[in-house]
Design goal:
2 strands, about 55 residues, alpha+beta, two-stranded antiparallel ribbon
Length: about 55
């Protein structure tokens, strides 16, 4: 998504996006519970949230 304002875009500022790709994990209520995780950290967080052992 872009409105050509680059990092001055209100959404980028609200969500503190400073790079692409940016990833967000949301809970059932839409709250951000994790941000910009990659690799093993991302896998571990998804397993934790889905209660997978």
């Amino acid at each position: 998504m872009s409105n050509l304002k680059k990092w001055k875009d209100p959404i980028a500022l609200d969500y503190e996006i400073d790079g692409i790709p940016a990833t967000f994990i949301l809970d059932a209520k839409g709250n951000i519970v994790a941000k910009n995780l990659r690799g093993e950290e991302l896998k571990a967080k998804v397993k934790e949230l889905l209660e997978i052992k």
